[in-house]
Design brief:
Blueprint (H helix, E strand, L loop, with lengths): L9 H15 L6 H12 L5 H16 L8 H15 L17 H7 L4 H14 L4 E4 L6 E4 L10 E4 L5 E3 L3 H10 L10 E2 L1 H17 L5 H13 L6 H12 L3 H15 L4 H16 L3
Antiparallel strand pairs: 1-2, 1-5, 2-3, 3-4
């Protein structure tokens, strides 16, 4: 994708990031808005009209669902028939190799994407239609839950949007987790994922995609920058950002961030802080 799109202008990027930070810190962060603003940081062609069009498409899809289908399972079936069946939203293994699989506006057009972005489509369409819906961040494979978030487990239903909305039954969730981690399902894995947790995971996926592609370091950098705008983020992200700057040849900027990180980590681990300062000195030496 990055070969056929241009990044936004510095002015547009600054505006997108301002709005992203504002939405992330709002009382009730909107998942679709955050995912679309993330897409605007990736794709300079996604203008205001494009952002609005994506929201309208989610509204349109929600309007095609039957009115109040009934039980969680009935909602699951209705969503599967509409999104997975009539419109063909699903994923395949090759989608993991494409950046657009992590961008909501692209997923709405291509009807293909990673499990978590397809789940965002299910979540946003179902929410707009009044369904009791929530995300479930299984390790390695995001799915969607239908039913009261904290109601009896037997009254909740899990669906896999990556598989066209297949309703998970029996040991299906256990199989998905075992395939990704080799471990079993713990009750905590089935808890609802908050919108900011979903967005953080999307950004993690983009960083991982870019990390294996040195030519896409700019993508990795903006993904880190957006993650740092979330109210809760790991301090180590700043260390990751500093190392990425150094790898990009921005030695002075990278060294400065390494030194700033060393000051922070020095309060809890002096040995690690000294190691980081050594990395900063090495980065500055590259300027000679």
């Amino acid at each position: 994708m990055t070969g056929r799109v241009r990044p936004p202008s510095p002015e547009r990027s600054a505006e997108v990031r301002r709005r992203f930070a504002e939405e992330a810190r709002s009382e009730r962060p909107d998942l679709a808005t955050l995912c679309l603003l993330l897409g605007a940081e990736a794709d300079g062609a996604l203008d205001e009209a494009g952002l609005d069009a994506a929201q309208v498409e989610l509204d349109r899809l929600a309007g095609e669902l039957p009115f109040r289908p009934g039980s969680p399972r009935a909602w699951a079936v209705a969503l599967r028939e509409l999104l997975g069946g009539r419109y063909g939203f699903h994923g395949v293994a090759a989608d993991y190799q494409r950046l657009e699989s992590s961008l909501l506006h692209e997923v709405l057009v291509r009807r293909r994407g990673l499990p978590i972005l397809l789940s965002v489509v299910w979540l946003e369409v179902a929410r707009r239609a009044g369904a009791p819906v929530y995300g479930v961040a299984l390790p390695g494979h995001f799915v969607v839950g239908l039913g009261a978030e904290f109601g009896p487990a037997e009254e909740r239903v899990l669906v896999d949007p990556f598989d066209g909305g297949r309703v998970l039954a029996g040991d299906d969730a256990e199989t998905l987790v075992a395939g990704a981690t080799g471990a079993g399902v713990r009750p905590s894995m089935l808890e609802p994922a908050a919108p900011l947790e979903v967005v953080a995971r999307v950004l993690n996926n983009i960083r991982a995609w870019a990390a294996g592609r040195p030519e896409e370091s700019a993508v990795g950098l903006w993904a880190i920058d957006l993650a740092l705008l979330l109210p809760a983020h790991a301090a180590r992200l700043r260390y990751e950002r500093a190392l990425l700057l150094v790898r990009r040849g921005e030695f002075a900027a990278g060294a400065g961030e390494l030194e700033a990180y060393a000051e922070v980590v020095g309060a809890v681990d002096g040995e690690v802080a000294e190691e980081v300062r050594g990395e900063a000195r090495a980065a500055r030496a590259m300027l000679n």
